[in-house]
Amino acid sequence: xxxxxxxxxxxxxxxxxxxxxxxxxxxxxxxxxxxxxxxxxxxxxxxxxxxxxxxxxxxxxxxxxxxxxxxxxxxxxxxxxxxxxxxxxxxxxxxxxxxxxxxxxxxxxxxxxxxxxxxxxxxxxxxxxxxxxxxxxxxxxxxxxxxxxxxxxxxxxxxxxxxxxxxxxxxxxxxxxxxxxxxxxxxxxxxxxxxxxxxxxxxxxxxxxxxxxxxxxxxxxxxxxxxxxxxxxxxxxxxxxxxxxxxxxxxxxxxxxxxxxxxxxxxxxxxxxxxxxxxxxxxxxxxxxxxxxxxxxxxxxxxxxxxxxxxxxxxxxxxxxxxxxxxxxxxxxxxxxxxxxxxxxxxxxxxxxxxxxxxxxxxxxxxxxxxxxxxxxxxxxxxxxxxxxxxxxxxxxxxxxxxxxxxxxxxxxxxxxxxxxxxxxxxxxxxxxxxxxxxxxxxxxxxxxxxxxxxxxxxxxxxxxxxxxxxxx
Length: 473
Prior knowledge:
The protein is an alpha/beta fold. The protein contains 14 helices and 22 strands. A seven-stranded mixed beta sheet has the order 6-5-4-3-2-1-22. Strands 7-8-9-10-11-20-21 form a seven-stranded mixed beta sheet, with helices on one face. The longest helix is centred in the N-terminal third of the chain and has 34 residues, at 86-119.
């Protein structure tokens, strides 16, 4: 039996891990898109396996860096079932359609630029015209392959393999994946944490401990950090909002993932509004995907924690208050850029590498009254990562923009567990795990986390590279 690491190996995006059984049956854990960086296109056009040979896909959750290559997998020959939680299936229906539209727009923009350069006879540029990785036409076929299962329910994907999802507390429907594999008289247990959430975060239940495993594939996004506590988070957020919108009369612009982060911020502001602590400033959610995702959240109360369930008794709409407006049309979005009034604008994408946030950056980065509040992980080579690193200028839509706005960072909103929270989550594996594979993290972070794990009684820790394969069992 083998495990091969086909993505999110010594990097964060592109989650994909292949398990090959003794009889050749192939199980793919996640099929995510590589995001950010000059080489993302090339990475997304490489498979470390033949899609037609994959027998089934087990999906941990609906973030694009975990599910975004599913349509490409289907287009290139995959014909098997896709196993996920019910909420993950619901979110994928809108996430993958949005991703397809982004693919189409990005390729159209790239090709237009290339043709313009060719007309100028720029002989140094030898790039070929691109085609989208996939288009929206294939999404219905992808969704038809999904088979939904509830948490804490064992189901079979092969005569010798049973699977169980447990709530990972990361986003709506997110799950850890536990596989129990029979090899004659021997049983081998493989665990995949997916992305691990955090205790006592709003909206979702706390992560549920996984069953013990012999081999553990573990995320490591924040393996070198520990987050701020929630009380400090609210105070810091209010301080940032007051300074930007009340004192400087500027815009607080928040790049946020459409699924999870946006709903958490809106829910927090809803609570502040009801408590009379939110200044009378208009708040806009400028992301059609976030609007649709919020509706999906409303359809899956089985994922809510007890605090939100109780809050619903006094406020039937935790994702809406009087000064909040959800923006759908392009025209409404453009009007926000030309408005001079103080406002809070929440827009996707969270890494600032796609979506309407790019236009808010283009129009708002040079205004010193504005603040861009980064509330989650950004890959170093995305626009968000570049701004986090202290860049003084940024190229957007072919123009150089000076960074005169304030760049603020709040790690506490992260839906990823920090190093202590990860170790707490996997603590029951200390005696059982023969090997821990670190994925979904930058290499430098993983090297620090490996030392931290060793110090916490995890002895055999591997940091696999992309394409590396291990014999297990």
